[in-house]
Structure formats: C-alpha cells, structure tokens
Amino acid sequence: MSRTVIRGGLVITAADEIHADVLIEDGRIAALAASGTPAAGAFTAERTIDATGKYVIPGGVDGHTHMEMPFGGTYAADTFETGTRAAAWGGTTTIVDFAIQTVGGALREGLDAWHAKAEGNCAIDYGFHMIVSDVNQETLKEMDLLVEEGVTSFKQFMAYPGVFYSDDGQILRAMQRAADNGGLIMMHAENGIAIDVLVEQALARGETDPRYHGEVRKALLEAEATHRAIRLAQVAGAPLYVVHVSAQEAVAELARARDQGLHVFGETCPQYLFLSTDNLAEPGFEGAKYVCSTPLRPKEHQAALWRGLRTNDLQVVATDHCPFCFTGQKELGRGDFSKIPNGMPGVENRMDLLHQAVVDGHISRRRWIEIACATPARMFGMYPKKGTIAPGADADVVVYDPHAEQVMSAETHHMNVDYSAYEGRRITGRVETVLSRGVPVITEREYTGHAGHGVYTPRSTCQYLD
Q1: Which string of DSSP letters, residue by residue, matches 390-445?
Q2: Do 240 and 255 contact (CB within 8 A), yes or no?
Q3: How confident is the model at residue 466 (pLDDT cuts 50, 70, 90)?
Q4: Does the pLDDT of residue 38 top 90, yes or no?
Q5: Residue whose C-alpha is closest to residue 187's, from 141, 143, 217, 222
Q6: Which residues are CB-neighbours of 405 under 8 A, at least 6 positions away?
Q7: Which helix (H) or strand (E) holds 95?
Q8: Considering all CA atoms of the chain, what is the largest pairwise distance in Å, rounded to the nearest integer?
C-alpha cells in the first residue's frame, strides 16, 4: 500500500474551504482531517507534501479538447502525449477529447481510431465524446451502444457545411435518441449556412484579413443557432449542452431557456473571457493566432460571460484546446481568412487564468473549482471519482501557490505550439505539484510523469439529469 499525506494546505472544493491534511492511499483519497488535530497527526505515509500557505485543489477536468484533430488539411499540433503533459503542467488531470465519425463511416470506427491515438500515450486520465457527422439509422443504434460502454455525450455541428454539419432533421433525430438512451447532445451553435454566404461575400470584396473571420461569424448567428438548438432539444425532450459560448446574445438565450426549467447547459472558454476582436485585428497576419470558432467577440461581451458564470447560466469553462502553429499552419490562410485553421491553444492555461479571475474579483475560489473541476465532472458523468477531494475520490490533487507570479509565454509553456495566446500576460498563481491517481506528475515544478500513466475513463450519463 502506497500512502501520501498532504499537510497544512487550504483544501478548496466546490462546496468547502477547510485547512486540512489529506491522506492518500493506493491512488485514492482515504481521509481528510483538520490540520493540527490528533486525527491529522495520526496520518502516516511514505511521502509527505508540505502545502503550508498553498491551496490543495482537485485536479482540473477539461471537458473540451481536440488532440491530433484533423482540420482544414492539417492536424492539431498537440498529440495526446504532448497535450496531456501540458495539461498536467497547468493543473488539469482529466481531459475529455472528441472522437470523430467521418461521413459514411461508423461511430465505432471513429472511436476506435481515437482510442488508438490515445492509448499508452497520455500522462493523465482521459475520456471521449463522440462527434456525430452522419446521422442515419445505423448511427442512431450505435449511439445506444456507446452510452452503455461509457461514451455518453455526442457533439453535433450547426456549422461547417460539407464537413461536420447536421441539418435540423438530423439534429432532431439524434436528440430524440439521446432523450431515450440518456446521452447528452453537445452543440456547436452557429448558423453555418448563413455564415458561408457572408464568407463568400467578404472574400469577393477583398476582405481577406483574419479580423474578417470575426465579422462574418456574427453574434446574431450564434444566438439564432443557440435558440434553434434549444427549441429542437425541447421538442425532443432531450438535454442540451452548448459548447464555447462567446456572445452575450447567446448567453441570453441560455438564460431564458433555464428560466423555463429546461435542461440546457452552457460552456465558455478562457479565450472569450480574456481576449477579444482587438486580438483578431492585430497588424500583419498576427490576428490569425486568434482564429477560432465561435470567434472572439468585442470586449463588451466579456461582462455578460462573467455574469453568466456567476449566475450559473454558464456552468463550465473548458478550453476547446485545438492548437495550430502560426508558422506553416495558421499561415495556410494568408490571403484568405477562411483557410486559417480554426483553433487555439489553452489546455495549460485554463486553471491559472481562472485563478486570475478570482484575484480580479470576477468569481470566488469555490466557484473557480466548481466551473473548472466539479461541474465538468458531474456534467460528463465522472463525479465524485473526479472533480473533488473527498474520501473515495481518485487522488487527482493539485498543490497550488496562490501568491507565485508568472509571465505567460510560448518560451515557457509546454504545449506543442509556437505561440501563446496570452504572450506577456502577468498573472498571479501557479501550479506547484500535481498528483494523478496519487502519482506525482508534476513535483515542485518538475515533470515527473510519463506517457501511459493516464488511463481511459468510461463515464456515466450526465449527473444533472438524475
């Protein structure tokens, strides 16, 4: 039996803050006891970690990543090995990535392909969502089988005609199936048919710079698609999770639906909270670094996103980590913004940026843990195994120094991408030590993990629907 005790830290979960010692046995949390009490003094272990003056928090759960994802004739720059290592450096100990069904192919083929990419390569634990690109009778039957084996969420796209796009009829059929089998439909809500018209018209006018990516993917078209997805889910009697919400008009649609008592959930990402169209408009071709979909919005949208996180109209902050190098990948879109690969790096930055949001007064410490750890674990059927520090939970634990200062930079990050979206940004707070199932992956700012430690994690259905 291997035992570790973490002493003297402030343990923060979504529910509590307590100065406690944490006992870990064989990869799980065995007990907590208030620091300095006889109960804590009775904890014995081979390894002791001193967390005095530090936070002890659950490992982050990033419910939206794209490692090795094919897009626009290239691939996301992070492999499962490099991406999960970077996640660990940033205090994230579980990711849920997206396996992709190709049009004409089976869900099983796509899932098997992603298992092959990830198995034996991950530094931290991982699960899969399934991207459904081709709704037909066989696909619908496969959805039932996948739910049974722990792939309980299915992503559809109202954007990208000819690639991932599903029409309203296909979306409704998948939602009806999810209503029956307990699956959760995740939606990329943008009106892709209308956007493609605006793209064509912009290029015809000679508007080719990266900033036009944000101008054609209009906030109203995100809001319209969000509204439509909500109503289709309502007709189907299915729950809905809207990914990467960026526009205040879309937040308003989610808030309205939740006020009506619908099982509708929303996710946003750090890039929408901290960056804006000002970045897309950076001179030269620099704006290409910030091309993602949904796009960055004008700064005034940020207040609505923060408010949505405080009022629980938005429940989760994930990254949509899908990195493409500036050199050789983002550059594919020089002279035509529509050819810039859509995606940004961020899996390493999320926990730190959200701690900065605590420092800045946007959210509380417990809300930080709620939106980054506990709620994604519950949303995707992994709680309390993941997302909290409690007896029986996996010992995915981060010792976090809330006073350390750092400057974010591509020179010091561990993601396999040649730029940082937050280059030069000064923030307060830094990961010091990370345990994954009790095993040190980061030890006092040194990488001590290895590829293959991370294991596939089957999931139960969404725990907000019980």
Answers
A1: STTSB--EEEEEEEEEEE--TTT--SSSS--TTTT-EEEEEEEEEEETTEEEEETT
A2: no
A3: low
A4: yes
A5: 222
A6: 426, 427, 428, 430
A7: strand 92-100
A8: 75
- Amino acid type, 48: T
Q: Other C-beta atoms within 10 Å of 148: how many?
A: 12
Q: pLDDT tens digit string along 267-301?
A: 999 999 999 999 999 999 999 999 999 999 999 99
For residues 427 and 356, is the Cβ–Cβ distance under 8 A?
yes
Residue 357's Cβ-count burial label (10 Å; 0-12, 13-18, 19+) is buried
Provide the pairing of β-strand 397-407 with 55-58.
antiparallel
Contacts of residue 148, Cβ cutoff 8 Å, sequence gap at least 6: none
Map tokens 């309980």 to a residue.
152
* Cβ atoms of residues 84 and 68 within 8 Å: no
Answer for the pair 144, 177: CB distance below 8 angstroms, yes or no: yes
C-alpha span between 6 and 31 (Å, rounded): 11
CB atoms within 10 A of CB 21: 26
CA 173/CA 308 separation, integer angstroms: 30
Query: In which residue are the tokens 């990869």 written?
Result: 27
Write down the pTM of the prediction: 0.98
- CA 7 → CA 43, 47, 117, 448, distances in Å? 10, 11, 38, 21
- CA atoms within 13 A of residue 158's CA, in its CB half-sphere: 28
Contact 265, 187 (CB under 8 A): no
d(CA 392, CA 218): 46
Contact at 8 Å (CB) between 24 and 438? Answer: yes
For residue 331 the two structure tokens come to: 């550059």
Question: φ, ψ for residue 18 (rounded to 5)?
Answer: -150, 135
Contacts of 301 (CB under 8 A, 6+ apart): 219, 246, 247, 248, 272, 276
Residues 6 or more apart whose Cβ sits within 8 Å of residue 205: none
For Cα atoms 244, 316, 27, give the angle at the middle one, nearest 5 degrees.
125
Contact by Cβ (8 Å): 401, 430: yes
